[in-house]
Amino acid sequence: MAKNRVRVLPLGGVGEVGRNMWVVECGDEIVILDCGVMFPDADMLGVDLVLPDMSYLREKTSKIKGILLTHGHEDHIGAVPHLIADLGFPPIFATGLTHGLLGNKLKEHRLLDKVSQVVITDSDSFTVGSFHVEPFHIAHSIPDAVGFAISTPGGMVVYLTDWKLDHTPVDGKPTNLQKISELSQRKPLVLITDCVRVESKGYTPSEATVGEAFDNIFAIAPGRIIMATFASNISRVQQAIDSAEAYGRKVLLAGRSMENNSRIALEMGFLRAEAGTLIRPHELNSYPDDQIAVVCTGSQGEPMAALNRMANRDHQHLKIKPGDTVVVSATPIPGNEVSVSRVINNLFKLGADVIYGGDARVHVSGHAAQEELKLVLALLRPEFVLPFHGDYRHMIIYRKMAVGMGIGYTNENVLIPEPGGIMEFAPGFGKQISKTPVGYIYVDGTTVGDVGNVVVRDRQMLAKDGMLIVVVGIDMSNGSLVSGPDVVSRGFVYMRQSQDLVEATKDTVRAALAQPNGDALTSVDSAYVNRKIKEVVSEFLYRETRRRPMVLPVVMEV
Amino acid sequence: MAKNRVRVLPLGGVGEVGRNMWVVECGDEIVILDCGVMFPDADMLGVDLVLPDMSYLREKTSKIKGILLTHGHEDHIGAVPHLIADLGFPPIFATGLTHGLLGNKLKEHRLLDKVSQVVITDSDSFTVGSFHVEPFHIAHSIPDAVGFAISTPGGMVVYLTDWKLDHTPVDGKPTNLQKISELSQRKPLVLITDCVRVESKGYTPSEATVGEAFDNIFAIAPGRIIMATFASNISRVQQAIDSAEAYGRKVLLAGRSMENNSRIALEMGFLRAEAGTLIRPHELNSYPDDQIAVVCTGSQGEPMAALNRMANRDHQHLKIKPGDTVVVSATPIPGNEVSVSRVINNLFKLGADVIYGGDARVHVSGHAAQEELKLVLALLRPEFVLPFHGDYRHMIIYRKMAVGMGIGYTNENVLIPEPGGIMEFAPGFGKQISKTPVGYIYVDGTTVGDVGNVVVRDRQMLAKDGMLIVVVGIDMSNGSLVSGPDVVSRGFVYMRQSQDLVEATKDTVRAALAQPNGDALTSVDSAYVNRKIKEVVSEFLYRETRRRPMVLPVVMEV
């Protein structure tokens, strides 16, 4: 690596949202920016989480001086407990709330005492190795979020992701435009920025507009109000509490992550409630319906979350009934549309009035729309820009937008990052110079990495047509069938109703194992018998049913 | 059943879109309205299609006088080939294009010569049994669509689904408001209507507005234009052809259903093109890029359709390249958002400019929005209304809308139909009187009904954590283990990397099959051994991995 160049590369998702993790490297020093998980795509069957691939760092752990976290969302902090040991336990730099939320995770993984959590503010600079880091406040859908300006010997990298402008944020702290303006005086070399809402023209509305919609609902709802939102959206929870207090309602916080996050935010002063506002489940019956508000998890239709349990009459304390007003204060994340829709339908079935969708104005995004992206680029004027944290198309549209502004950006200095693409920068120089392999690292259950693409492909095959086991006992001395064939199947056909098919399958196996003249095979080994059975049974079943179950022969040598 | 009552019941989906099929019964006569399929939900693993459940009709086939089809979409005609034999081959009444599209299906199922296809027009009434049927034209996203007014001895049922008003339809035939107005003079008893866009305020824009957007694109696109849309949306294809002709481009129709449907529509005069406009794949290279337009399938991100093949560089004739303009002239059907998004990203990666989404105005719905639903209700004034063909919430919102109009509708005469809910009507009387069981009937491969809920549940389990087969040979005379345990797994862990886990699993089996004193079991039967292995292995694997693969013991008696 050339001296005095800054190397920048993503180890997680760039043309997809999630698994945010960047490496900034200069000389012998590395800092890591964010360390998040991705929730699996629908075709990653049975996978719980997807992690960034840190193969690039494997031989370099001694160079890692620290991890900088921007904010407390899963896609930015969720991989820390899974990867921190392999990274050699570098210190983690983050603001108070981010550390609070991370600490909760570390505790669950019994890592709390092994990790060095350095608390930073949004205004005091600090050093990581020889890099000078200046954090600055940004407005997002979680409080205490920051961007970072990282000055390395090779130049300044600004990491500004998951932000919007919001001139009237609920916590009173807008994105620090003064700081961004000031950084522009110092010739920032590279800006790494999210671009997920570049397709949305204009500006993202302020979080405060949601509060107005809440007030309108709280003013007229005849019975209980049940509001589902992201547990991490503390400002949203705050606005629900504010509306409840204004209209004389008690508030129950429901759902594990809602309770956990709110507890941490209350303790740290990021969430405020008057004494007596927050109640416990057993107090629900002490108040009339029109004095109750519930703020709960499940806005994405997650099967086990509070809202879906209520919609399925499966919640311990809350049964939906006519007169309830349910507010879904969120937009479905792509892929969750059907689950969310199903929950809403079930709530209607139970007689609730449900308020949801764009027209209701009960949700705004935490990400910058196109005019905001333009404004910050025009203000900061970095030499190079790496848009990420969006689909691939968003990155392309961002580049087109930047070039179209006519302030000097070309396709050469708006780089479209690739997963694992190693880019190097110096004043007047910036390009991808090579690539490190990065794949999907799956977490399934408690273990990381033992489920790979082969296993997921098998699951896809099993999911489609099920499987069929053929058991035979073969006398290896003469190749004759001494027991079986027996057939066991799951997920293929309902066996009891398909006896003809089962018998015909057995006949197919018997015929295949017999010689043309009806004698047993003379020369035999179990691998051959295995392959033979698989071949004839697969072919037979496809001919009969047009399905391709996984055929698994079990050959017992007797 | 009371005499002179009309019985109405749905056998397919009502609180979900698809599987449209209604029974209208009076005296000893039945007509069936539509006979459609549903595309499976994401959790119906491996299922190809879902059919209505016609158990109610099983003992009544002699009463069935005919099937009336409104239009040629899959969710209205797709179940005919699967169910027509069980229904006793009643005659099918439909307009020319609907019959053309149905005929194509019947041919594939070798049923063409067995089915009586009666061609009707949108203006000539006819009789089915003793019922008098008056068809009338409606505007929808496919030409030659009709509604039906069915006069029975018990009263008139109006079936008006999948319609919009559209004063400027591409085929020049708007919804026949005069007929609807005229029917209102004859005291219609029941209206069955779709309600899927009741959440959308105002009016659905005319199909003609899409043509204007097309013209704007065709006027400036620098290279080829590749447009994906529904193969059945003949008017949309017509508008693409019109724009191509106006701007001097040749048109290639690509994708099997696009070719089939267009051929039928061209033959029947529903689609028109000047001589020489339509070209064959091998002619693509004879014209410069800016004289080429391709109209293709794949607007829903279907993996095997033309657009996705192009996006994956897997199409025989078409490779996407920079300079291409791709137009996605459709909205993702709920559940397809992620697939569509993936295709669009891949097209961007190949350098295409992609035009999609609401802002681009390259798609309009074929269904009525709220003001249209109100207008038709106010005009027709049926005594009872059954909203369907929407999610459950749409039915509830429709009822609220109808009641809120203040023209006499109450919760009692806007009935929310249930699947299999048997409703009876007479002037002054209308309610659900009982219920017939209806379930999901799955088509998987070539067969109907042999995949049921048990099989699908097994697939879900296999999809989540895979499976593990444990093979043992037991000497039944003394219960001793004479061969194995062997372990085979798929979709659980990658076996080669998990030898320790495999060995520990085998040890667990050995230990379970040994007596406390280390001796072999004394009393033994294979069902017991089977259950024992399943229990200990499941428990062991869950403890080790927090996963629950399906454990399948294979016990060979030796």
From TrEMBL, chains A, B:
<keyword id="KW-0479">Metal-binding</keyword>
<protein>
    <recommendedName>
        <fullName>Ribonuclease J</fullName>
        <ecNumber>3.1.-.-</ecNumber>
    </recommendedName>
</protein>
<feature type="binding site">
    <location>
        <begin position="231"/>
        <end position="233"/>
    </location>
    <ligand>
        <name>substrate</name>
    </ligand>
</feature>
<dbReference type="GO" id="GO:0004534">
    <property type="term" value="F:5'-3' RNA exonuclease activity"/>
</dbReference>
<feature type="binding site">
    <location>
        <position position="76"/>
    </location>
    <ligand>
        <name>Zn(2+)</name>
    </ligand>
</feature>
<feature type="active site" description="Proton donor">
    <location>
        <position position="194"/>
    </location>
</feature>
<dbReference type="Pfam" id="PF17770">
    <property type="entry name" value="RNase_J_C"/>
</dbReference>
<keyword id="KW-0378">Hydrolase</keyword>
<keyword id="KW-0698">rRNA processing</keyword>
<dbReference type="InterPro" id="IPR001279">
    <property type="entry name" value="Metallo-B-lactamas"/>
</dbReference>
<keyword id="KW-0963">Cytoplasm</keyword>
<dbReference type="InterPro" id="IPR036866">
    <property type="entry name" value="RibonucZ/Hydroxyglut_hydro"/>
</dbReference>
<dbReference type="GO" id="GO:0006364">
    <property type="term" value="P:rRNA processing"/>
</dbReference>
<comment type="similarity">
    <text>Belongs to the metallo-beta-lactamase superfamily. RNA-metabolizing metallo-beta-lactamase-like family. Bacterial RNase J subfamily.</text>
</comment>
<dbReference type="Pfam" id="PF22505">
    <property type="entry name" value="RNase_J_b_CASP"/>
</dbReference>
<feature type="binding site">
    <location>
        <position position="140"/>
    </location>
    <ligand>
        <name>Zn(2+)</name>
    </ligand>
</feature>
<feature type="binding site">
    <location>
        <position position="389"/>
    </location>
    <ligand>
        <name>Zn(2+)</name>
    </ligand>
</feature>
<keyword id="KW-0106">Calcium</keyword>
<feature type="binding site">
    <location>
        <position position="71"/>
    </location>
    <ligand>
        <name>Zn(2+)</name>
    </ligand>
</feature>
<dbReference type="GO" id="GO:0005737">
    <property type="term" value="C:cytoplasm"/>
</dbReference>
<keyword id="KW-0540">Nuclease</keyword>
<keyword id="KW-0694">RNA-binding</keyword>
<dbReference type="InterPro" id="IPR055132">
    <property type="entry name" value="RNase_J_b_CASP"/>
</dbReference>
<comment type="function">
    <text>An RNase that has 5'-3' exonuclease and possibly endonuclease activity. Involved in maturation of rRNA and in some organisms also mRNA maturation and/or decay.</text>
</comment>
<feature type="binding site">
    <location>
        <begin position="363"/>
        <end position="367"/>
    </location>
    <ligand>
        <name>substrate</name>
    </ligand>
</feature>
<dbReference type="GO" id="GO:0008270">
    <property type="term" value="F:zinc ion binding"/>
</dbReference>
<feature type="binding site">
    <location>
        <position position="46"/>
    </location>
    <ligand>
        <name>Ca(2+)</name>
    </ligand>
</feature>
<keyword id="KW-0862">Zinc</keyword>
<feature type="binding site">
    <location>
        <position position="48"/>
    </location>
    <ligand>
        <name>Ca(2+)</name>
    </ligand>
</feature>
<feature type="domain" description="Metallo-beta-lactamase">
    <location>
        <begin position="18"/>
        <end position="202"/>
    </location>
</feature>
<feature type="binding site">
    <location>
        <position position="444"/>
    </location>
    <ligand>
        <name>Ca(2+)</name>
    </ligand>
</feature>
<comment type="subunit">
    <text>Homodimer, may be a subunit of the RNA degradosome.</text>
</comment>
<feature type="active site" description="Proton acceptor">
    <location>
        <position position="367"/>
    </location>
</feature>
<dbReference type="InterPro" id="IPR041636">
    <property type="entry name" value="RNase_J_C"/>
</dbReference>
<dbReference type="Pfam" id="PF07521">
    <property type="entry name" value="RMMBL"/>
</dbReference>
<dbReference type="InterPro" id="IPR004613">
    <property type="entry name" value="RNase_J"/>
</dbReference>
<dbReference type="Pfam" id="PF12706">
    <property type="entry name" value="Lactamase_B_2"/>
</dbReference>
<keyword id="KW-0269">Exonuclease</keyword>
<keyword id="KW-0255">Endonuclease</keyword>
<feature type="binding site">
    <location>
        <position position="73"/>
    </location>
    <ligand>
        <name>Zn(2+)</name>
    </ligand>
</feature>
<feature type="binding site">
    <location>
        <position position="75"/>
    </location>
    <ligand>
        <name>Zn(2+)</name>
    </ligand>
</feature>
<dbReference type="InterPro" id="IPR011108">
    <property type="entry name" value="RMMBL"/>
</dbReference>
